[in-house]
Amino acid sequence: MNATKVTAILLALAISASAQQAPPSKALLEMKKGVLAELNKLKAEMAKRNARNEAMDCDNIGAKLMTPSKPMPEKGASAPFPGEKAYDEVLDLWAEAGPALAKLCKDAQAELKDKELDEAKLFAGWFDTFPDLAKGVKHLNRRRKFMKLPPVTQDWSASIGGYLHGIYLKTNKDQPSVAGLGAHNEDRKLPGWTPEGEKAAGGILAWGGSAEGIMDNWLNSRFHRHPVMNRDCGRIAFGGRQDGGYSCRDGGGGATARPAAEVITWPGDGDTEIPTSFGGELPNPFPPGVTSAGTVIVADFGGRQPKNPQWRLLDPDKKPVEILDLDKKSPLCFCAKSALKSKTQYTVELLSADGQRLSWSFTTR
Description:
Blueprint: H1 3-17, H2 26-48, H3 52-66, H4 84-107, H5 114-128, H6 130-146, E1 153-154, H7 160-171, H8 195-201, E2 204-207, H9 211-219, E3 235-240, E4 245-250, E5 264-266, E6 277-279, E7 292-294, E8 296-300, E9 310-314, E10 320-321, E11 323-327, E12 332-336, E13 345-351, E14 357-363
Parallel strand pairs: 1-3
Antiparallel strand pairs: 2-4, 3-4, 5-8, 6-7, 8-12, 9-10, 9-13, 11-12, 13-14
Helix pairs in contact: 1-2, 2-3, 2-4, 4-5, 4-6, 6-9, 7-8
């Protein structure tokens, strides 16, 4: 379907949806025509790289743009992975497109008012998050490669959920219902509730910093590793912003390939720039009286339970580091009792009674 036909159909939908209301202003329609034209260009680039889900994202974003009151369509998730090089190009293209789309929405704001102005600001803010999100997905796939996990793709259209949930939390920051684990819900009676935000609330959440740092926070945790450290996940719905919260959930569909090893680990063997400490997770992951510790270590046997496993963490001199055991069944999880030293290589050794022997190393940031 060519760009002219898509634009005509979507404009017709918008006018039909507005039949019971005041018609949209010329400025708003011109803004949306410009965004749709850019989305169609982006869709063509996705098609060149065999990124079928990402091409569908362009259509989904266009549909949301034209009918903002309708929930974001969720389609796709069964397309093959286009390849590592091609997908890096895909992420770069989305990172470039975000600011361009946002500019179209910002340039129109001088001629808009009331709900139309709010609409333009919302889309501009969401599109502006794309470069940060692209960096986060690239960083996650780098980490997953060391962990022997296949890469994931990003559901760009569903990323609006994390962005909207961040707005909801900020708008309702003084409400008791959003405190602590209440952040994983949205109350339909409170301002800022959206169906997309409600879905995002059910994912893993984190606050502050860049998307790359947030990915490390989730990997380096006890309770927030799904879906970022999951052998069955092939697509994530990752969204948010640096001045608010982030959300990530499984975007549907299976993994792009089988793991490159039977046992996957965090940190991955040979990985670098690993965080030196761990803390601040809800619910509290530590034994009573402990509030922070060193890097989390995870060994996931894929559902198989090793028999009587024993493990230790060694410093560069091969001396054991004192550890805290958190989970003794697969995925095994433990952490250094104190923060690790920076720019230092550590080694994990694991031995089980059924003959499983593992050894891997990582270097801290």
